[in-house]
């Protein structure tokens, strides 16, 4: 009985922390000790894993392929890297749609998260809200699109931090624009900056 009570208390603490957004406080992120993640059963675990896979795919779509180096004229000069293309992004709209669909499927099994199901529903709902804004943003409003995608990442990252899922993705934080994202690989690839100035900004949060 005591064990059940302790599990319920932990779940309620998780819900309070994530619903209030405290996990994203930069002042506490560095000092905060790792929190034991919660296990969830199938099919929810598989659906949440798919959400992370599609989120990482959206990151790759935002970043785009690595540019080929352009050789500088003259001997002894290092290759120059061409500037990144502005935020317009190959297949981003299609990937947003795919990610939104995976969130919908995950929400259909959210009750399997037990006491944390309310917090999970809030995360999914908020992420989908921002993805809809991104989908509805026209070509002339790329800034709004990118900001909305960034906010959706901020929500989805909480899933990776809350639940014990079988993935190798890393969570990055850029202090210059206070953005978060999920990606594979250990080298930061900032997905929300069209100027290229923040291209390598980011530290691993997990």
Q: What are its keywords?
A:
single chain; 206 residues; mainly alpha; three-stranded antiparallel beta sheet; 6 helices; 49% helix; 6% strand
Description:
The protein is mainly alpha-helical and 206 residues long. The protein contains six helices and three strands; from the N terminus they run H-H-H-H-H-H-E-E-E. It has helices spanning 2-20, 26-29, 44-63, 92-107, 117-136, 142-162, and strands at 170-174, 179-183, 203-204. A three-stranded antiparallel β-sheet has the order 2-1-3. Helix 3 runs antiparallel to helix 6. The radius of gyration is 19 Å and the shape is globular. The relative contact order is 0.15.
Rg, Å, rounded: 19 Å
Order of helices and strands: HHHHHHEEE
Strand order of the largest sheet: 2-1-3
Helix content: 40-55%
Q: Any low-confidence stretches, pLDDT <50, length ≥5?
A: 12-32, 79-90
Question: Proportion of β residues?
Answer: 5-15%
Number of distinct beta strands? 3
Mean pLDDT: 80
The description of the largest β-sheet is:
3 strands, antiparallel
The shape, in one word, is globular
- Going by helix content, strand content and strand pairing, the class is mainly alpha
Terminal CA distance reads 33 Å
Number of helices: 6
Give me a quick take on this structure.
Helices cover 49% and strands 6% of the residues. The chain is mainly alpha-helical and 206 residues long.
List the helices and strands and how they pair.
Layout: H1 2-20, H2 26-29, H3 44-63, H4 92-107, H5 117-136, H6 142-162, E1 170-174, E2 179-183, E3 203-204
Antiparallel strand pairs: 1-2, 1-3
